[in-house]
Amino acid sequence: xxxxxxxxxxxxxxxxxxxxxxxxxxxxxxxxxxxxxxxxxxxxxxxxxxxxxxxxxxxxxxxxxxxxxxxxxxxxxxxxxxxxxxxxxxxxxxxxxxxxxxxxxxxxxxxxxxxxxxxxxxxxxxxxxxxxxxxxxxxxxxxxxxxxxxxxxxxxxxxxxxxxxxxxxxxxxxxxxxxxxxxxxxxxxxxxxxxxxxxxxxxxxxxxxxxxxxxxxxxxxxxxxxxxxxxxxxxxxxxxxxxxxxxxxxxxxxxxxxxxxxxxxxxxxxxxxxxxxxxxxxxxxxxx
Length: 288
Ligand SMILES: [Zn+2]
Prior knowledge:
Blueprint: E1 5-7, E2 11-14, E3 23-27, H1 44-47, H2 55-58, E4 68-72, H3 105-108, H4 131-160, E5 163-171, E6 189-192, H5 201-213, E7 218-220, H6 228-233, E8 240-248, H7 264-287
Parallel strand pairs: 3-4, 3-5, 5-8, 6-7
Antiparallel strand pairs: 1-2, 2-4, 6-8
Helix pairs in contact: 5-7
Bound molecules: zinc ion.
Zinc ion is lined by residues 29, 52, 169.
């Protein structure tokens, strides 16, 4: 892929609209293109509670500062780009999976590679899925998404000797029954670097400081440490820095209707200021 590209229903890659800098953002969970073969049991409005709705749009200023933004168009509950291919729940399937599985705690919570439960705890399917169905979701959505992000980060790393990656998400304002923090109100932003392993500490600290200066509360690795995307791409010893950024949904939308609320415009503006600050940060670090 080159320039700004789209695979319909799968991904959109927003190329820099200014000289390219060593900053890449990805939004794996904001897709709204529901495939005809999803066959979910709960109403669409319930299934959509899995989305990080609006996240790619909220970060839309990133290409203007020279960053690249990779956006998933497929729904997160259909196949989750922020899970490993081994994180499949055997309970979902009507037969054996042909490769070894290593289900994680996310699968135990019903939210592995293919979600078994909707956000309200109800079963996502009224039947077992065929292995070929899951394989098709992986091949049509998960693999191209990872290939596009891998290629983008590799090209940036080759050109600049470093790659700074923000994995963009949003989170419910309060932990639900199946989260690690049930009933607890979250900070406005939760930064996840898998306990300091996926990026230079200065990157996490810079984002925390910048966002706090805008008046937001920030927590680090609590309750979200970062999952598959920052784990795959964060190798700070090689100059590859990945940070997960979770934004509290009530800052910008009504969690039930998914409609933008009065805070949306301010948050979008502040994320524009954040990517400007990040552009200065990554140029600064690059010439040091
Ligand atoms: Zn997410």
